[in-house]
């Protein structure tokens, strides 16, 4: 780039004190806590004996546990055993016990392909469910619609690990599903057990389909009705209208939703850890995310981590990047963090006939029952003895909710999470407001890079961030106060800051787009410097957006999983809520019962409900944010 | 009081040249207007004067001091934006007092000045309202008051009346003119409305595609347009093209088309034209008469094919050998479609432009 003296004069004018400070804040935070850690990971994975090398990737692909093609094991397996049972008259007979295992022995494609298989399946299933649900909710008017509107959002309430545990408990051998099918209704002689990859796909589809649903809903609502009316006017109707006009117009929403689901599924630790809590480890934990997590959990020092782990982490990052870039032509980054704008016109809604109504209920009722079951189960676990009572709970108890304020390690974890999330909010508001303001209002070279850096964390697997921190801060700052092996709490503040930054950035950016720049120009012509304009005009006008964005970033920091469990395990005393939950569910039962984790899950859900309500009220618009 | 001078100012947005080599001087206390169609660069030029845009080339002087690189807050201009840009989180009083607070005036003086300017714009009593509680006209007055209260070196107005309804627009433009004359403040005004520009301005610069087409007094521009753009942008006219067949020593040019001859004058002495060349004649409807005038005049004879009653006059179109001439007649004049009509236009009111001007015509049909 050639800079003439005019360009330099212009740049000098653009870079007033305020812009300079904002630029330094945004670039410093993003460079130290995002770029350098990821670069460290890349360096570790690609460098062998001081030269660029693909050795670790070769090792990863060649090792038998990583890639198995064709897959081993049969998807469905029947195991028959005989067992003595005592009949009521006292005689003992040998009775056959038949168990139908789905996913128990296979398929197993190895860690790498398992992850791709699971993420792709989840993406497809979530897209189908989300698309149908969104179309129904956007285009039909039927009794109970508002109830479904609320129920469809329930799976978005993050209760990491415990939701998967609940599903495991329900579909497991002695679970509710078998009780109903076999013992109550006598529909089958088989005990049905869903386990392994199918179980992961089930759990993740149920928790992620609302992402597609919300994206598609906002797309459908935002389609100008006259476009469809014009098509009808020309003779298109029914499925033809949907296929030729409606769907193409809503495609960006589908692309964005599906990609996010793919990435979230890829990096998810909740399902493998939660299912391992219910069944013990097995095929459901043979996933890249779990592999990286386990390697770091077991290692005491960085030297004990096998370098292939870094290659696997980079592979995850690469897959997320490919998923992301492949749909870039449909959706800009900006649409990722903020989904629904709410319709500007009255959308086309009609009343279905009796057959249509029946079809709608046949689809929605089972969907909301199954999808909200994990959250209901978490509440049940927290307030009853269900964890130890067998198929159904037998009595209510306040013991586990009380533990939130009495049990010292639980109180400590809550205190840790609150501290980290509160401090992260300060960083997020400073960085997010600075980045959004520069991107929206300044004309300086390279501002596109800031735009990208401030929004891309939503597409970066948290595991990558955690591993990057361990590598960079654990090596360069070894034995200092920011060494994650000694003091992971400090770095958790920054990992939350970076990962949840897009929420605030997008909220502030949206506010700036709705605020005419002439409001700032008027202040400048009246003699206010840019700094003064920023503090007397911009900040008061955007207060609602900043606070709304900050509240969301706060709760989603509280429920953050990936970096919490990986960094938290370095010093359990500094572990946040989600780390303690993972410990309770999976790592060591000695820490406490599953019901404690459920009580923490209830706490997180309560915070999320409050935050979403408050921020929707403050932002005065129906803005749906992602909370994963 | 301040005079403003632009020297070879150029500003591009990508490929679009918003301001193309603009040089002009605006005098102390003058009411100066940039007039042109949307996208002609008038707002960009105003924003360059305010310091909100930086020119790619050229310089801006306030009282011979180069302010080209000064940020807007160092220029002491008062600007009224098209959308008023009133801050919704401040009352009328706080909006107006903002610039004074920045200038660190004592509280009492701020109060006094704000009430003075509220009196001037006739808004006394509304100081505690918020902008959303005001009508469009009141918001306009607040925006004006906010710009005036700081006693700016230059008052800048960017299409301030375009969001008001027709009646209010007329009322406000007289109001703005009254205040400007009272304060004697150098004022630069931007509008696309030619009537508004004529009424309000001391001088007007007509702009097109980033260039200044002509600068002059309102009457000068209307009566003596220097080019076809100015002629066709201001007011209505009939434009016909023909071939130059005679140039008299007094400067009268005769052009011919379809057997009809029209005599007219060139817009200025330095514009040259030669016999045999194509040329364009421009005639305003109000310069036509149905009675033969004393001065030498062209005669247009044809069949009336369109009549429209406007109020103060009646518009009539005469089809003369396939060319249609728009003329205004007295509303009492009896005329009917299909009737033969003869109209006259003095040579001195008919302007002849050289052929190169054809491209610059503004939305006008060249017959």
SS elements, strand count of chain A:
5
Which fold name corresponds to the CATH topology of the largest domain in chain A?
Answer: MetI-like fold
Output the number of helix runs of chain A: 26
Order of helices and strands of chain B: EEEHEEEHHHEHEHEEHHEEEEEEEEE
The shape of chain B is: elongated
Q: Overall mean pLDDT score of chain A?
A: 84
Sequence of strands across the biggest β-sheet of chain B: 6-7-8-3-9-10
By CATH, the architecture of the largest domain in chain A is named: Orthogonal Bundle
Count the DSSP helices of chain B: 8
Instruction: Give the structural class of chain B.
Output: alpha+beta
Structural Rg of chain B:
24 Å
Biggest pleated sheet of chain B: 6 strands, mixed
* Tally of discrete structural domains of chain A: 2
Structural class of chain A: mainly alpha
Helix content range of chain B: 10-25%
Report on the structure:
The complex is a heterodimer of chains A (about 625) and B (about 375). Chain A is mainly alpha-helical and about 625 residues long. Chain A is built from 26 helices and 5 strands. Chain A folds into 2 domains: about 270 residues, MetI-like fold; about 325 residues, MetI-like (MetI-like fold, Orthogonal Bundle). In chain A, the strands form 2 sheets. Chain A has a 3-stranded mixed sheet. The longest helix of chain A is centred in the last third of the chain and has 34 residues. The radius of gyration of chain A is 26 Å and the shape is globular. Chain B is of the alpha+beta class and about 375 residues long. Helices cover about 25% and strands about 35% of the residues of chain B. Chain B has a 6-stranded mixed sheet, with helices on both faces. Chain B has a 5-stranded antiparallel sheet with strand order 13-12-11-14-19. Chain B has a 4-stranded antiparallel sheet with strand order 2-1-4-5, with helices on one face. At the A-B interface, helix 1, helix 22 and helix 23 of A face strand 6 and helix 2 of B.
């Amino acid at each position: 780039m050639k800079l003439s003296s005019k360009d330099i004069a212009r740049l000098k004018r653009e870079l007033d004190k305020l812009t300079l400070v904002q630029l330094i804040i945004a670039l410093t935070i993003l460079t130290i806590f995002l770029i350098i850690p990821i670069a460290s990971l890349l360096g570790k994975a690609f460098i062998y004996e001081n030269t660029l090398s693909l050795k670790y990737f070769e090792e990863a692909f060649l090792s038998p546990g990583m890639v198995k093609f064709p897959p081993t094991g049969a998807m469905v397996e029947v195991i028959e055993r005989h067992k003595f049972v005592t009949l009521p008259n006292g005689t003992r007979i040998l009775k056959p016990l038949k168990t139908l295992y789905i996913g128990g022995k296979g398929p197993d494609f190895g860690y790498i392909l398992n992850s791709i298989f699971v993420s792709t399946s989840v993406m497809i299933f979530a897209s189908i469910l989300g698309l149908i649900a969104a179309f129904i909710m956007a285009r039909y008017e039927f009794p109970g619609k508002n109830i479904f509107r609320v129920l469809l959002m329930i799976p978005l309430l993050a209760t990491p690990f415990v939701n998967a545990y609940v599903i495991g408990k329900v579909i497991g051998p002695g679970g509710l599903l078998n009780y109903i099918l076999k013992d109550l209704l006598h529909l089958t002689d088989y005990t049905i057990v869903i386990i392994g990859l199918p179980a992961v796909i089930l759990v993740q589809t149920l928790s992620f389909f609302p992402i597609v649903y919300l994206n598609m809903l906002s797309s459908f609502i935002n389609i100008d009705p006259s476009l469809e009316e014009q098509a009808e006017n020309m003779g298109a109707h029914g499925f033809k209208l949907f296929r030729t006009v409606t769907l193409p117009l809503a495609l960006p929403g589908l692309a964005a939703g599906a990609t996010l689901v793919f990435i979230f599924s890829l990096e998810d630790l909740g399902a493998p850890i939660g299912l391992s809590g219910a069944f013990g480890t097995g095929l459901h934990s043979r996933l890249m995310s779990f592999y990286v997590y386990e390697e770091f959990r077991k290692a005491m020092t960085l030297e004990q981590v096998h370098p292939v782990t870094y290659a696997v982490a980079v592979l995850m990052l690469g897959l997320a990047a490919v998923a992301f870039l492949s749909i870039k032509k449909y959706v800009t980054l900006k649409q990722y963090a903020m989904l629904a704008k709410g319709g500007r016109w009255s959308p086309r809604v009609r009343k279905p006939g009796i057959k249509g109504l029946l079809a709608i209920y046949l689809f929605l009722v089972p969907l909301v029952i199954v999808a909200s079951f994990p959250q209901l189960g978490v509440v049940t676990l927290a307030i009853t003895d269900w964890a130890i009572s067998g198929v159904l709970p037998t009595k209510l108890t306040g013991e586990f909710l009380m533990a939130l304020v009495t049990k010292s390690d639980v109180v400590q974890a809550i205190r840790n999470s609150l501290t980290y999330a509160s401090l992260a909010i300060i960083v997020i508001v400073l960085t997010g407001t600075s980045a959004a303001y520069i991107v929206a209002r300044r004309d300086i070279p390279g501002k596109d890079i800031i735009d990208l850096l401030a929004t891309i964390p939503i597409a970066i697997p948290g595991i990558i961030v955690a591993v990057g921190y361990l590598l960079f801060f654990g090596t360069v700052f070894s034995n200092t106060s920011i060494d994650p092996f000694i003091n992971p709490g400090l770095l958790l503040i920054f990992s939350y800051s970076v990962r949840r930054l897009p929420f605030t950035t997008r909220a502030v950016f949206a506010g700036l787009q709705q605020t005419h720049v002439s409001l700032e120009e008027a202040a400048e012509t009246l003699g206010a410097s840019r700094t003064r304009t920023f503090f007397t005009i911009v900040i008061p006008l955007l207060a609602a957006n900043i606070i709304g964005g900050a509240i969301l970033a706060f709760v989603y920091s509280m429920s953050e999983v990936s970096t919490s469990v990986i960094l938290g395990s370095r010093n359990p005393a500094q572990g946040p809520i989600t780390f303690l939950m993972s410990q309770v569910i999976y790592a060591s039962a000695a820490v406490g019962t599953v019901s404690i984790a459920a009580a923490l899950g209830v706490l997180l859900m309560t915070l999320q409900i409050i935050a979403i309500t408050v921020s929707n009220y403050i932002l005065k618009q129906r803005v749906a944010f992602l909370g994963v | 009081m301040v005079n403003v001078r632009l020297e070879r100012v150029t500003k591009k947005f990508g490929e679009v040249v918003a301001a193309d080599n603009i040089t002009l001087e605006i005098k102390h206390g003058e009411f100066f207007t940039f007039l042109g169609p949307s996208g002609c660069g008038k707002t960009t030029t105003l924003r360059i004067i305010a310091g909100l845009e930086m020119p790619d080339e050229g310089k801006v002087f306030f009282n011979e001091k180069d302010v080209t690189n000064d940020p807007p807050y160092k220029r002491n201009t008062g600007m009224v934006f098209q959308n008023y840009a009133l801050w919704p989180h401040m009352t009328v009083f706080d909006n107006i007092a903002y610039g004074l607070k920045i200038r660190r005036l004592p509280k009492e003086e701020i109060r006094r000045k704000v009430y003075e300017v509220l009196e001037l714009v006739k808004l006394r009593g509304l100081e505690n309202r918020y902008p959303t509680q005001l009508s469009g006209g009141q918001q306009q007055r607040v925006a004006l008051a906010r710009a005036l209260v700081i006693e700016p070196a230059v008052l800048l107005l960017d299409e301030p009346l375009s969001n008001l309804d027709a009646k209010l627009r007329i009322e406000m433009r007289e109001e703005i003119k009254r205040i400007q004359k009272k304060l004697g403040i150098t004022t630069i005004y931007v509008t696309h409305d030619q009537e508004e520009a004529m009424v309000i301005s001391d001088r007007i610069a007509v702009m097109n595609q980033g260039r200044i087409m002509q600068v002059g007094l309102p009457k000068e521009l209307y009566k003596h347009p220097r080019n076809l753009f100015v002629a066709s942008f201001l007011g209505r006219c009939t434009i016909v093209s023909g071939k130059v067949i005679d140039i008299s020593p007094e400067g009268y040019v005769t052009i011919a088309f379809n057997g009809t001859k029209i005599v007219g004058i060139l817009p200025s002495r330095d514009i040259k034209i030669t016999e045999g060349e194509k040329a364009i004649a421009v005639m305003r409807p109000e310069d036509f008469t149905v009675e033969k005038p004393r001065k030498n005049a062209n005669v247009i004879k044809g069949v009336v094919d369109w009549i429209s009653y406007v109020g103060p006059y009646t518009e009539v179109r005469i089809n003369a050998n396939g060319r249609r001439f728009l003329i205004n007649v007295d509303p009492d004049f009896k005329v009917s479609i299909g009737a033969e009509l003869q109209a006259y236009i003095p040579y001195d009111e008919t302007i002849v432009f050289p052929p190169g001007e054809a491209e610059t015509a503004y939305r006008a049909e060249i017959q």
